[in-house]
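Structural prep section.
Before we set up the soaks we want a predicted structure of the protein with adenosine-5'-diphosphate in place, mainly to decide which crystallisation condition to try first. Input record follows.
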Amino acid sequence: MLQIQSQSPEQTQAIGKAMGEVLQPGDFINLNGTLGAGKTLLVKGIAAGHGVDAEDVTSPTFALINEYHGRSPLYHFDLYRLDRPEELEDIGYEEYFFGSGICLVEWGDQFDEYLPDDRLDVTLEQTGAAARKITIVGRGTRGTELEATLREALACTYSE
Ligand SMILES: Nc1ncnc2c1ncn2[C@@H]1O[C@H](COP(=O)(O)OP(=O)(O)O)[C@@H](O)[C@H]1O
Ligand SMILES: [Mg+2]
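Run finished without errors. Recording the tokens verbatim:
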């Protein structure tokens, strides 16, 4: 488990950018935390770190999924408004979740039985007006490796 304190929206985006720089095709990130915790902002940073213009990144709350083209394809989901798992099946989630693009899934815990075992779980908690605690847990072989890579990458800039 890796914990990072962010003191501002800019810092959260910078943390995301460092993450986006090390992501590889097939990686899956499950993002959770209350509304306004900073999931979408972190995704903006991740996408930017992966070569996407951050301005192209918007919340897919109504669209369910946004697609961006960086060094590899990125699929940005928001499952907040999804009521039934059948809706996931309707959009052919397996092609995305188990494909060769990168998935960034807000509110993934709502449908955790559908998520790949190999992934990064990221939780954002509001600890102050502009303060957030970001907890990163890698699962499976690639998730564990990614967590270790991030520990190195983020240690240079941020300490606990
Ligand atoms: N340290 C911080 N990290 C992320 N967002 C922050 C931070 N401090 C304040 N904010 C604000 O919180 C909001 C986060 O919004 P958003 O990323 O859309 O959240 P979510 O997707 O989790 O609902 C933004 O308005 C942002 O400016
Ligand atoms: Mg959001």
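Observations: The longest helix spans residues 140-155.
Flagged for discussion at group meeting.
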